[in-house]
Specification:
The chain is α+β, with helices and mostly antiparallel strands. The protein has an 18-stranded mixed beta sheet that branches. The longest helix has 14 residues.
Length: 274
Amino acid sequence: MRFTKMHGLGNDFILLNGFGQMPPGPLSVWARRLCHRRLGVGADGLIVLSPAQGADFRFSIFNSDGSRAEMCGNGMRCAVLFAQSEGLAAGPEFTAETLAGLIRARITDLASGLVEVDMGTPVLAAEKIPVLLPGEPPLAHPLSAGGREFAVTALSMGNPHCVVFVEDAANFPVEHFGPLLERHEVFPARANVEFVQICSYDKIKMRVWERGCGLTLACGTGACAAAAASFLNGLSGRRVEVALPLGSLELHWRESDRHMMMTGPAKKVFEGEL
């Protein structure tokens, strides 16, 4: 079975075309096996595209630890370009069935791999995030972890997020506090954790600890959560550049329909055969 390795700003994935053939056995097992960076291909996640009713394809994503994610923004940009190259849909506009609902995406510049994804409406109700904190959403709520108190903002982009504002994102000990907040008791389904530095009213910096993956170079849903949290806390506008270690994503939280629009690049790294 052929596979393609792709990345979105360093957030890397193994993609399989499941329209004609699916790997035998549970995909969670394949994810752990293939994503291992010493014993496999190496990636943050495994993405499988398969037929869907009412959409161009079904988008199934598994983290490197084998757990299934509801949605992934960087992975969706990769999936759209992969679907285009595999002839799974005519494009440049695509619809994808995900565990977070129907996602729409559009290739805006094929040559440079730019894709715009309608990430939907941020979920602010605590019970739907889910998080055991008051507020819709909980804004700058005090939370202790690892002997330190944080002011966390929680919301969901189809998956749960915990946003923390810090003075210096580049030098913050993400690997220490990330897993403590990910598995904090107030997040019954665990959470992706974004450490966000405000640069200006229209630019923020972010590092992320992803649920089921650990430290990654980028997270699309995390960038959306960071942009929404920045706006809700009065720290940025509705349009904001989210700077990540290997590049930036452009986010626009539209006032008209409250949908979060994300634009950024994706790129093929190599192809292989399993």
